[in-house]
Specification:
The structure is a single chain. This protein is an alpha/beta fold and 270 residues long. The protein is built from 11 helices and 8 strands. Strands 1-2-4-3-5-6-7-8 form an 8-stranded mixed β-sheet, sandwiched between helices. Helix 9 (225-234) links the parallel strand 7 (212-217) and strand 8 (238-243). Helix 1 packs parallel to helix 11 (255-269), helix 2 (73-86) packs across helix 3 and helix 4 (131-147) runs antiparallel to helix 7 (185-196). The radius of gyration is 17 Å and the shape is globular. Bound molecules: D-malate (MLT). D-malate (MLT) is lined by residues 30-31, 99-100, 195, 222.
Length: 270
């Protein structure tokens, strides 16, 4: 089955849905990106027998933003739950999220735990923003609106996104840049405001009762390996995998390592 758009919670959401098997994997992208960041995983997961659903969160990719205001992790989580309902997914899913997709994953667990069979958290963190980081995000959001492009956010994030060994003009870097440039102004500006508003998820960790795989690029400068170590230490049934030769975009920088770890863990634990 393959469909492109669905109406939910007042917006039209874009997504891909391929494969027919079980479990169902729900792949949730980072900021300010879209579902195409998961291209290196989708075929491999389908080949492993899964049904794979990859949405564009509201404000990102081809999904509508809805009314102005911060794009919160809780709203994204509710949109994902509505998507699963619309698609008549009758079983709990393996939730896979990178960075912001991980923050949304914590909100999804808090609000919709019954829909979750397993969690895969890549290059993310349980901590909220410091007051300084919140102020920086609000300043960036205002700058984005003032100049009318995502450039201020791109300039801030790009130098810290990849392994220092990834060539600057590599295909992966070009692809990520293309995603960032293609994101709507609403997605970038109100996305930053939503990220600034996210709560701490540390108290959530001890409540997670499903198998959890935590992965992090060894050179991740945005959410460094210590952040993933803290998540794995707080979740009862967690496995931590460090991805070599990768930075924050581990699933794109070293897809073979991420796919191998994911499929291996899936076979044993899910
Ligand atoms: C992401 O990759 O989703 C962002 O780096 C998240 C963030 O800015 O905290």
């Amino acid at each position: 089955m393959y469909r492109m758009f669905v109406d939910l919670n007042g917006i039209r959401m874009a997504y891909s849905d391929t494969g027919t098997g079980s479990p169902v994997a729900l792949l949730v992208h980072g900021f300010p990106l879209n579902r195409s960041m998961w291209d290196p995983q989708i075929g491999r997961l389908r080949a492993a027998g899964l049904r794979v659903i990859a949405p564009d969160l509201r404000g990102f990719g081809a999904s509508e933003s809805g009314p102005p205001g911060p794009l919160t992790m809780e709203q994204h989580a509710d949109d994902l739950a509505a998507l699963l309902t619309q698609l008549s997914i009758g079983e709990p899913v393996m939730y896979v999220g990178l960075s912001m997709g991980g923050y949304v994953g914590f909100a999804f667990w808090r609000k919709h735990a019954a829909l979750v069979r397993a969690l895969v958290l890549l290059d993310t963190r349980a901590s909220p923003d410091t007051p300084q980081a919140q102020a920086d995000r609000h300043r960036l959001a205002a700058e984005v609106e003032a100049v009318g492009t995502a450039q201020p956010v791109i300039d801030t994030m790009l130098p810290r996104l990849f392994s220092p060994h990834l060539p600057a003009r590599s295909r992966v870097a070009q692809q990520v840049l293309g995603m960032m440039k293609g994101t709507s102004l609403r997605g970038v500006a109100d996305g930053e405001r939503g990220l600034a508003a996210r709560p701490s998820s540390f108290s959530t960790l001890a409540t997670i009762s499903v198998p959890t795989l935590v992965m992090v690029g060894e050179y991740d400068a945005l959410t460094p390996p210590e952040d993933s170590e803290a998540i794995a230490a707080g979740v009862a049934d967690a496995k931590l995998v460090r991805i070599e030769e990768a930075g924050h975009m581990s699933n794109m920088e070293n897809p073979e390592a991420v796919n191998d770890a994911l499929v291996d863990w899936l076979r044993r634990r899910v």
